[in-house]
Design a protein that fits this description.
The chain is built from 14 helices and 13 strands. The chain has helices at 10-31, 70-73, 98-111, 130-134, 150-153, 157-170, 178-200, 219-224, 239-248, 274-278, 291-294, 304-307, 361-366, 374-377, and strands at 2-3, 42-46, 49-53, 88-94, 114-121, 144-148, 205-208, 213-217, 259-262, 264-267, 297-298, 311-315, 352-357. The strands form four sheets. A six-stranded mixed beta sheet has the order 6-5-4-7-12-9, sandwiched between helices.
Length: 379
């Protein structure tokens, strides 16, 4: 195992906490008094010090209440005209991920910058992300969020039947349960419909990762290569987009494809000394409550078994409509553009990397996930 100090500075961390805290207070004002325990993570201010508590608790709800009316449970920001001079979008499929979602949203809002999100909830979830998403509903934030239920992308029963049959054929020689078959069929249709929706909105760069995965510039690699590029600090809002645009302007860039395949680095649950974790973190913040600060030990870059295969960022503006079809793999969402040879990439050779955090055992095991053991690591 290797140890890495996550490359996020105190200034960027304060921004992330400030954004989350401001939205928390905005939500309290907009929605009236509610118990903090109804949220997966609560953030409050003590004078000028930001104090964060991202707990393992989640707002539990009945299964059927996941199919909620977007207009009442989630402010319909998709109806607003969003000013987006340059931003990222994301398709996110979740199941009881509230304990990850608070930090994931704030981080990518700042670093990418993420300004468009389509999120779908597995119908077997016992929690809803709506309270967390509602913190971001202010028009001033220019964050357009849509929350989909199954009927938003699987209303066509014939289309769903075809997707299920496709999964059964793909795994006909593998013993898998019905829950996993339905999960894969849902995944196949969600990412397909989500990319179509975003392309129809004239969106371009779109991240296809999970809520425990964080996209960032691979600063260690960039520093050791002679690219001649000025690397934006993670303090700078939209550092990933800024660097991507500069990289694409290079005549010899390796990022010319509309499908950028990015290696993952898996962080385990080996604890570091509290003094090391807390180092450089502003007074009043508990670094152990942040996935991106608490976990410092990750698998070796050449350990493909641990890190698994790459995830992607798609430039949908350069993807032909004819290339969009039901997704056979989240790792190759557009098969004609995302090559097999880049499924196993070495992080030290790439300018972007995705940090993948398992979280605590309580967080990892919280979901009643149809993917057991190594199956969960494949995504």
């Amino acid at each position: 195992m290797r140890t890495t100090r996550y490359g996020i500075s105190a200034l960027a961390l304060l921004f992330i906490v400030y954004v989350s805290s401001t939205l928390w207070m905005h939500s309290k004002i907009a929605n009236g008094a509610e118990s903090a325990d109804s949220y997966s993570g609560s953030i409050s201010f003590d004078g000028n010090l930001a104090r964060s508590r991202l707990s393992d608790q989640s707002s539990r709800t009945h299964h059927q209440s996941i199919h909620f009316n977007t207009g009442t449970r989630l402010e319909p920001l998709e109806r607003l005209e969003i000013n987006r001079p340059g931003s990222f979008s994301s398709c996110l499929l979740v199941m009881d991920d509230n304990h990850f979602l608070t930090e994931w949203l704030a981080y990518h809002y700042h670093v990418l910058p993420l300004r468009r999100l389509i999120i779908a909830v597995d119908p077997r979830s016992v929690t809803t992300p709506a309270p967390i998403l509602n913190r971001w509903r202010s028009p001033n934030l220019n964050f357009n969020i849509s929350l989909w239920a199954d009927h938003d992308f699987m209303a066509d029963t014939e289309e769903h039947r075809v997707a299920v049959d496709w999964v059964r054929r793909k795994f006909e020689n593998t013993k898998i349960g019905e829950d996993l078959i339905q999960h894969r069929a849902r995944q196949r249709l969600f990412y397909y419909k989500c990319m179509k929706q975003l392309k129809n909105e004239n969106r371009d760069w779109t991240v296809l990762t999970d809520s425990d995965e964080y996209l960032l510039i691979n600063y260690e690699t960039v520093k050791t290569t002679k690219t001649g590029l000025v690397t934006p600090s993670v303090d700078e809002p939209g550092s990933v987009l800024t660097f991507l645009q500069r990289e694409l302007a290079q005549p010899m860039t390796n990022l010319t494809s509309p499908c950028i395949q990015i290696p993952r680095s898996r962080f385990n649950t080996q604890e570091s000394e509290s003094s090391q974790v807390q180092k450089l973190v502003p007074l009043g913040l508990n670094a152990s409550q942040f996935q991106t600060l608490r976990w410092r030990h990750h698998a070796d870059a050449y350990n493909y078994a641990a890190n698994r295969i790459s995830k992607v960022v798609m430039d949908l503006s350069r993807v032909p409509w004819s290339a969009l079809e039901p997704v056979s793999s989240i790792h190759r969402p557009v098969r004609s553009l995302c090559g097999r040879r880049k499924l196993h990439l070495r992080a030290p050779e790439q300018v972007f990397v995705i940090h993948h955090y398992l979280g605590t055992w309580a967080q990892y095991s919280y979901r009643d996930d149809s993917r057991k053991g190594n199956e969960r690591g494949l995504l």
